[in-house]
Amino acid sequence: MLWRQVPLAFVLMIGAMIVHAQRLPDFSELVEESSPAVVKITTVAKSGRGITLNRPDMEQIPEIFRYFFDPRKIPEREQRSMGSGFILSHDGYVLTNNHVIDGADEITVRLLDRREFEATLVGTDKRSDLALLKIDAERLPHLDFADPEEIQVGEWVLAIGSPFGLDFSASVGIVSAIGRSIPTEENENYVPFIQTDVAINPGNSGGPLFNLKGEVVGINSQIYTRSGGSIGLSFAIPASVAIDVVEQLKSKGVVERGWLGVMIQEVDKDLARSFGLRKPQGALVARVEAGSPADKSGLKVGDIILSFDGKSIKQSGDLPHAVGMVTPGEKAIAEIIREGDRKRVPVMVGALGGGATVAGLSNSSKSVDSLLGVQVESLPDELKREWNLDTGVLVKAIDPNGAAAGAGLRVGDVITQIGFTAIQNVDDFGLVESQLEREALLPIRFIRQGRPVFRTITTPK
């Protein structure tokens, strides 16, 4: 009788909750099977070696006080740090982050069964933040990498590591994005990071990120935080990068990456329209380094690279990832858009090696009330040398209500291209400007503080 009085909606809700709970994965077996191959890494860096007071300084000290300043070595101080890692093979290869062991004099690897080993450094790769270690042991438990092509946004992932020194802690979440571009302090961008909401904290660095099969899909490397702890935004180095780095460190002790020799920028909606694209995509070439593989292959400023070596370039950050994965000396095909036409350019990939003062009179172009609302002049010699320029015109004045101001140009910028036409000098600028159509949306390239920039400019009615 009581059951009949329960609302049907409540019964359905309870049933849905039961079904949903049954679908949630149980990670206990994965943790039990994988933890023995996860390691805790502690390092010691010694400082203060051999620091001695100099005799000339002693001579300047009154004799009565010299006793207190006798030459002596300052005692060594030890700096300790910790992180995580995992065993790659039964014979003792261990992978971790480069920043975990960077500068270390001693590296200790501790296993789940409390065994400890002194590790030797096989090699490091700062650009990917990976380091390969070796411990003297056999028949060790080890982990396998997942197929790099199978990872998907939304799938469950699990991390095991030593956050805050709490050994072999597990945390779970989902993959929230793949192919994230995070430039380094050197403005390099060779790792397409996996973004997750797994709780990662200091000490997790270098530890594995698992899929539900117990395979390693990534190596936990970074967190985004304002508090110093996890806020649900963590980044892992994908298996595709790790596999390549490990193979090269094992065979050569160093990592070689492909190099193209271009500076690129993002293609926004307006730039896409001005280049004849239906939607923003690709990497816009803003500069080509002289003598680089890109230069030798015929790539030009203003080209939009849509794919490289068969990999789609959806945004500019995808290009360094694709180029870096190509073995130096191999040929790759770059699919580009040039002046509205689609082309295929073969490129022999190379190896990656590790405000101006305006003076004197100049030939000025039109007044600020010109079509583009900009006054330009010839490049001073000192600016050519400082920014390594051969062509272009210097912006001398701008109409704040004109087209140039609307495109974001400033006094001191150097205009090098309007539409698909290179601007060699003041005469070129005047000729190109006189031929522009009204209400036209065009790409414009300029140099600001030595760095190339593409924008769009719209001519007035």
Automatic annotation (TrEMBL):
Domain of life according to the entry: Bacteria
Catalytic function, reaction form: Acts on substrates that are at least partially unfolded. The cleavage site P1 residue is normally between a pair of hydrophobic residues, such as Val-|-Val
Record's subcellular location: Periplasm
GO molecular function terms listed in the Swiss-Prot or TrEMBL record: serine-type endopeptidase activity
Chief place of localization: periplasm
Domain PDZ per the UniProt entry, residue ranges: 244-314, 358-426
Similarity-based family: Belongs to the peptidase S1C family.
Pfam families listed in its UniProt record: PDZ, PDZ_2, Trypsin_2
Active-site residue list: H99 (charge relay system), D129 (charge relay system), S205 (charge relay system)
EC numbers for this chain: 3.4.21.107
UniProt cross-references to NCBIfam families, sorted A to Z: degP_htrA_DO
Organism: Marinibactrum halimedae
GO process terms (BP): proteolysis
Binding site for substrate: H99, D129, G203, N204, S205
GO terms under cellular component: periplasmic space
Function: Might be efficient in the degradation of transiently denatured and unfolded proteins which accumulate in the periplasm following stress conditions.
Name used for this protein in its record: Probable periplasmic serine endoprotease DegP-like
Enzyme class: hydrolase
Keywords: Hydrolase, Periplasm, Protease, Repeat, Serine protease, Signal, Stress response
Signal peptide: none
